[in-house]
Amino acid sequence: MELVEGGAVRVIGQIRTYNEIIEGKNRLNIVVFAREFALLEEDEVYENKVYLEGYLCKPPIRRVSPLGREICDLMLAVNRMYNKSDYIPCIAWGRNAVYAGGLCVGTKIRISGRIQSREYRKRMEDGNLITRVAYEVSIIKIEE
């Protein structure tokens, strides 16, 4: 199979997470464990879909974005074989954020959404702003 930069591929698999220590800090490394991988045909439609079922493992963090949108950060523990779990960061927007903000740690939920990366700016203790990249699942639908 010849991969071309900018070419579209289909990946079916699992989102997995691992903790890594980078520059003395613990970072969550998010990877896609591919079970199936194929090049898309020119007429095939690209879709970015993720389906997860798991348990809230941290209290939801509901807030308002700088642009005034309701958002809620969630950490979802998704079980896999051999007593392992993956901890997947998720973000809900609008009405989903309001709903998710009322959930409790330990609640089992099912979500559908898309995997995404986004840049954000964080103010450090010294007052400087730095740009970071968040990798997460953006929730489209959530249900208990």
What would you say this structure looks like, in words?
The protein is globular. The mean pLDDT is 92. The chain has 144 residues and is mainly β. Strands 3-5-6-8-7 form a 5-stranded mixed barrel. The relative contact order is 0.19. The chain contains 1 helix and 8 strands; from the N terminus they run ββββββαββ. The longest helix has 8 residues, at 94-101.
Record keyword descriptors for this entry.
144 residues, mainly beta, OB fold (Dihydrolipoamide Acetyltransferase, E2P), two-stranded antiparallel ribbon, globular
- Shape, please? globular
Under the CATH scheme, which architecture of the domain at 48-143 would be assigned? Beta Barrel
Distance from N terminus to C terminus (CA atoms, Å) equals: 41 Å
Largest sheet: 5 strands, mixed, barrel
Number of strands: 8
Integer-rounded radius of gyration: 17 Å
Percent helix among the residues? under 10%
CATH class call of the domain at 48-143: Mainly Beta
How many helical stretches?
Answer: 1
Mean of all residue-level pLDDT scores = 92
**Strand share of the residues?**
over 45%
Low-confidence parts lasting 5 or more residues at pLDDT below 50? Answer: none
- Provide the spatial order of strands within the biggest beta sheet: 3-5-6-8-7
CATH H level, superfamily name of the domain at 48-143? Nucleic acid-binding proteins
CATH topology of the domain at 48-143: OB fold (Dihydrolipoamide Acetyltransferase, E2P)
